[in-house]
Here is the input.
Amino acid sequence: SLTIGIVGLPNVGKSTLFNALTKNDVLAANYPFATIEPNVGVVGLPDERLGKLAELFGSEKILPAPVSFVDIAGLVRGASKGQGRGNAFLANIRDASAICQVVRAFSDPNVLHVDGKVSPADDIETINTELILADLQTVEKALPRLQKEAKLKKEKAATVAAAEAAFKLLNDGVTLYQGAASAGVDLDLLGELHLLTTKPFLYVFNVDEAELGNEAFLDELRALVAPAEAVFMDAKIESELIELDEDEALELLQSTGQSEPGLNRLIRVGFETLGLQTYLTAGPKEARAWTVPVGATAPEAAGVIHSDFQRGFIKAEIVSYDDLIAAGSMSAAKAAGKVRMEGKDYIMKDGDVVEFRFNV
Ligand code: GDP
Here is the structure.
């Protein structure tokens, strides 16, 4: 499954954040597989629509879409040269589908910073540099082999060109995620190299509570990573929030000027960064969100529930969530002509409420 790897320098709040994520019963609800390994957490994608659907259909259970996070410790300055846990963490990052860097922006003088000062820009560069150095080594090692192959197989010339262009970008200190598109580097050709910096990045800035509402400050941080997404939270507050009952949590949230926990935003942004969206099903048993890649067709979406649904796909009965809620019930939505029959070429939209028709 698609996993978001959490990286960052030591002492920036990774464990605090990861523990809050995985201890959050609400988010981990109904997932018996929520803890697979100590450093892997599966949490539910917060989605208010499911609660509304459950009301409408009298569903017994609510099943949000699962989102996986893996806490990848050990990324320190010099890691690509074998410092710290060295290559062990590189293998973990290779397995992740997106990279989430936690960046310290909180000022607490009691928490030591490994480089002696709090500087989000420097920390981001330190981590990027390690990942870039690791990719440079990979490309450098692969190039002679690729060049040799290209002498035998003409079609490999494009791969060599892509690898050379990637090398140049990396050598200039640019991640492939940032630079490949504008430099015209076809990353699909380099898939076999399992490069790290081709993965989508997102950032969590761990800020002081007092700064959560300071838009000028947050904008400066945003600018450091744009166009990658930035999520802001106070990890310490997040770890307190999960210990409170609902009313107390709401009170604490409001006192920090937030409408929802930062963890919820992180899960949502992470899910989007993976290129995923959900469609919904509802009935007396469960109201459930199913994960599909953006651009998936109706039969592909059916296949997420069961491969038989995809094989025997006939059509999908679809109403958009908003139309369904506006109508007030499925029968009212049907009467209003809002329920469509879609065929095998239909491209799924986020929030489609679906019932599949299929042959067995
Ligand atoms: P990791 O090494 O990145 O996993 O960092 P930890 O989560 O272990 O945090 C390192 C230290 O910083 C711990 O003492 C935490 O309590 C503290 N810490 C983490 N997040 C925050 C925060 O948002 N504010 C403050 N003041 N301290 C924090």
Residues 295-358 form a domain with the Ubiquitin-like (UB roll) fold (CATH 3.10.20.30). Residues 26-35 have pLDDT under 50 and may be disordered.
